[in-house]
Every structure is written in structure tokens, then in C-alpha cells.
Amino acid sequence: SVLVSPAPRPRQPILAHVALAEGERHPYERIFRSVMTHLMDAATNEYVFVRQFFKENGPDAFDLIFSRTLGLVLEQLENYLFDCHDTLAVLLMIKLTHANRRTMRARKVDVLDAFFDRVANLL
């Protein structure tokens, strides 16, 4: 009989407090993936909440809540890319950005579209 190995499970995002406690070190693209995963999950949950609570003003409320966070992520990415010579890391982050956009579209949450555009432009 042929044994089929299960599909590899996607890596869970990095938990900062665990990584610090265990002295873990990760390449930037892994950190980028983790930050984006946490960001997309938080954005999805917050978007659902503000749409229910603020009704038609939900997208505006979301922008007010997340604008500083998104700005910080973009600033950190730009700072990294300024001195980055790792072509493979950049290509991986481009691929991750496209995959993240598809994930958010599948969730029917479009509030990060402009953010993904800016990330793609930086990369």
C-alpha cells in the first residue's frame, strides 16, 4: 500500500513573547509573513466588528483604528528594504503579498487593498 503524506501544515505566525523567551531568530521574510498574518486576522475581526457596530461608517472607523498600525508596518518595511540586498527575500515577500491579497478577497474584506498596493509598490 502507498502511504500518502499529509499536506504540510502552514506555519503558525510567530508569537513575539515566545520567540523572545526562547531566543529564536528568524529571517526577515518569515517575520514579514508573521506580521502580515497577525495583521490580516486582526483586520478581518475588526472590520466585521466595525461594520456591525458603526454600520455605514464602518470603513471610516476601520481607517481611524488601523491607520497608525498600517503606517508603522509600511515604515518598518521601507527601512528594511533601504539596506536590503537579499533578492530572494524580496521575491518571497512579493509572493506573500499577492497571496495575502487573495486571502483577504476570499474573506470578502477589502479594507487592506490600498495597504497591499503600497506594500507591492515598496517591494
UniProtKB/TrEMBL annotation:
State the Gene Ontology terms under molecular function. Answer: syntaxin binding
GO CC, one annotated term: GARP complex
InterPro entries listed in its UniProt record: Vps52, Vps52_C
All copies of domain Vps52 C-terminal, residue ranges: 14-120
Q: Which domain of life is it from?
A: Eukaryota
Q: Could you mention a single GO BP entry for this protein? A: Golgi to vacuole transport
What is the protein's given name? Vps52 C-terminal domain-containing protein
